[in-house]
Amino acid sequence: MRVNATAVGNFNRIRVEPVTGSIGAEISNIDLRDFDDEIIAEIQQAWLDHKVLFFRDQELTRKQHVAYGRALGELEVHPFVLSDSEHPEIIILNSTPDSFQAAEVWHSDVTFREAPPLGSVLFGRVIPEWGGDTCFANMELAYDMLADDVKEHIDGLYAIHSYVKAFGRGMSPDEQAAAREKFPDQKHPVVRSHPVTGNKILFINRNFTLGIDGMTADESRPLRRLLCAQAEKPEVQCRFRWQPNSIAQWDNRCTQHYAVPDHGGQNRRVERVTLIGDRPY
C-alpha cells in the first residue's frame, strides 16, 4: 500500500507536516503574497508528495490569489460556475441560508473536458463557525487497494464523462444541446497515469461519469459503484477544517474531494482558481 507520510522531499524554505499517512500536508513558514522560484519549486514538490496542501493565515487579495495560481501554471475560466467580474479566473462558491450549496458528492473537477484541470487553489473568505469541512481522497491509493482481478478487468477500459449530471439540471433541451455541442462527452481511461510520477490513478467519479464505453448502463452500474466507493474508504482520506484565510490546494488528476454540507444556517464563501491540465492517458 502506497502512503505519503514517508514521501517527504528536501525543503529549505517551507515547513511540511503530513496530515495523514495517505494524503495531505500542512505548509507553514510561508506568505503566499511573497514567493520566488525556489519557494514555488518546493511547493510543487510537496504537492507531488502529498497531493493536497493546506495553508493557514494567508491574507490574499483576489489579485494575489490569481498571481499565486499563475505561478503554478496556466489558469482556466470555468464554463458554468459564476466567476468574479474583475478576475474571471476566480469562481465563487457562495452558500447562504437562502441559497445553500455544497458539492456533497465525491468527485474530481470538470472531468467532462477533453483536458480536465491539473489542480485548484481554493481560498476561504467567509467560513462558518462550525461545519463546512472538505474531505479529500487519494485516488492512487484507491487504485492500489483494488483486488488484482479488478485491476486487470479495468485496465484498458474507458469511462464516458459528461457535464449533464452536474450542470445540465435546469437547462432546457435546447440549452443542453448547445452546451453538449461546446462540451461533447469525453472518453477518459478508467485508470489514468499521472503525467509527472507515472503512478496509476483510479479516474472515475459520480459527478461526471455516465458509464463505461462498450457497456450498457445496467452492465456497467455494479462496476461503477464498486470503483466510486473506493474514495469513501477512510484509509485514503483526510479532512480539512476551514478557518478564514485558509487555502486548500489539490492535484485534481489524482484526488477527489467532498464538501461536507453540515453548516446550514451559516454563510460560507470560498473562491477558486483552477489550473489547466492535459488529456488523461
Describe what this molecule looks like in 3D.
The structure is a single chain. 23% of the residues lie in helices and 25% in strands. It is built from 7 helices and 15 strands. The chain has helices at residues 37-50, 62-72, 139-144, 148-154, 164-167, 173-182, 217-228; strands spanning 15-18, 25-28, 52-55, 91-95, 119-126, 134-138, 158-161, 186-189, 191-193, 200-202, 209-212, 237-240, 247-251, 255-259, 268-275. The protein is globular. It starts with 14 loop residues before the first strand and ends in a 6-residue tail after the last strand. The mean pLDDT is 93.
Give a brief outline of the structure.
This protein is an alpha+beta fold and 281 residues long. It has seven helices and 15 strands. A hairpin with a 6-residue loop joins strand 1 and strand 2 (25-28).
Low-confidence stretches: none
Number of helices: 7
Structural class label? alpha+beta
The oligomerization state is single chain
Shape category: globular
The ordered string of helix (H) and strand (E) elements is: EEHEHEEEHHEHHEEEEHEEEE
Give the radius of gyration: 18 Å
